[in-house]
Write a structure and sequence with these properties.
It is built from 2 helices and 2 strands. By secondary structure, it is α+β, with helices and mostly antiparallel strands. It has a two-stranded antiparallel ribbon with strand order 1-2. A hairpin with a 2-residue loop joins strand 1 and strand 2. The radius of gyration is 16 Å and the shape is elongated.
């Protein structure tokens, strides 16, 4: 990936997390590789699909694209709250 990420910070915070909310907060800095996280406490269970997923137009990625052309670039990243 070409964008900054801090997986070590995420895993250190996960080691200290005591609640599902703390778990969710801990993985905010985690971007690569995409992972599924399962966290549980006495109040419930949280399943989080975390990583950076590109915004693409319909059908993008089904064929080989010209990597030298900006016309085939991704539009950015799907916001975490929409994953």
């Amino acid at each position: 990936p070409l964008e900054a990420s801090n997986e070590l910070k995420a895993f250190l915070a996960l080691n200290k997390a005591k609640t599902v909310a703390a778990c969710k907060s801990a993985i905010e800095t985690y971007n690569w590789p995409d992972q599924n996280f399962l966290c549980a406490d006495e109040k419930g269970i949280g399943i989080f699909h975390n990583g950076q997923y590109p915004i693409r137009w319909k059908g993008q990625g089904r064929t080989i694209a010209d990597g030298s052309s900006k016309a085939y670039d991704w539009f950015g990243w799907i916001p975490r709250d929409q994953i």
